Amino acid sequence: MSKDNTKCTTPIIYIEQDIKFENIVTINVCKVGPLKALLSQFRIKTPIFYLNSCVRSCQIGMRWERGPTARFRIICELEDNIEPVFQKIIIKINSFVISDTFTLKTERPEYFEWATCMLPTDTKDSDSFEIHFTIEHSIPIIRRNTMNCSVKITPRKYELYERLKMMYYDKLHTDVKINVGNKEFLAHKSILSRSPVFAAMFSHEMLENKKNVVDIKEVDPNVFEILLKFLYLGEIDEIKITESTNDLLLDLMKVADIYQMEDLKSKLADVAARSINVSNVVNHLILADKYNISDLKKSSMLFIQKNHVKVKDTKSFENIIQTHPALMAEMLCYLLKE
After folding, report:
1. Residue 265 has what pLDDT?
2. Are 99 and 50 a contacting pair, CB within 8 Å?
3. What angle do CA 104, 105, 109 make, to 5 degrees?
4. Which DSSP state fits 111?
5. Per-residue model confidence (pLDDT) at position 15
6. pLDDT of 249 strictly over 60
């Protein structure tokens, strides 16, 4: 063959994109009460609750004036400064609408202006507010087709989130079964491998990897279900964890430590720090000490310092003297130093 000195023509790659913005509507209800407990405080905030991928979380702030007059404000955590479109925001007591108007600040889109409303005359101490949200937002759904060549395209963040959510809820193409107690979970090895423990299990010729079945003992199925959802979506139900009557936070932290999920441990520590009160602060301190979470430990000790009169009368404070003498001594040193 004769030598051709001309340069080769670069192959042409064709990419078709069909970007369609599909409206998604979510309806949410937040119940806050009882009224007697609310009115005893000048200002209060609800726990954080989660909505969707654009409005990642919401929180209701309330304060009281004479009348009694209630004032409400909504605080949102938005994804990438995307402003949600709230179709309706309605506050009800006894099925009676007391407010349905909110104004969004332009300079800080995550904060709503305070909305003022009068409480009905027939309200009882046991009544609760119902705050109804109907939110409409657009998520870009991107469909791609390539010809002539394979092209690696990184999907948009929302598209990826929706795919992971579909994998978690629809259980499509699962390749491993996990037996936890009397409950069975179907999952994907690639997602479970976010945990170094599962990654090692599926990377070697272990029985679990050959049979595609994993048996987990001494873990509550409800705890594992929260861990599994976090592996897929990076989300936890903060309200469920903080309002649980059992040691759900402690159990989750223990399992997160077993499966070496540092990101889950960090998120649980943040939840614990935001939910500290007189009755749980000692348990949070023990938790922080056990798993070496310095920020939570400092927050717990600072809370004890400011509320030591009430905390020292709790049962958990009495128990720590017997069960964790070294931690008790450390706490006393911190209080005396401060």
Report:
1. 92
2. no
3. 85
4. B
5. 42
6. yes
Average pLDDT rounded to a whole number, residues 248-253: 91
- Helix ranges, the chain (H): 35-39, 157-170, 189-192, 196-203, 207-211, 221-233, 238-242, 248-258, 262-274, 281-290, 294-306, 308-311, 315-323, 325-337
Residue from 273, 213, 272 nearest 247 by CA = 272
Give the tens place of pLDDT for each residue, 37-62: 777 777 777 766 656 556 666 777 77
φ/ψ of 77, rounded to 5, equals -105, 110
3-state secondary structure of 6: coil
Name the residue with higher pLDDT: 291 or 336.
Answer: 291
Cis peptide before 47 (omega within 30 of 0): no
Report residue 210 CA to chain centroid gap.
34
Task: Say how far apart CA 137 and CA 157 lie, in whole Å.
Answer: 15
Q: Give the CA angle between residues 28, 274, 316 to the nearest 5°.
A: 120
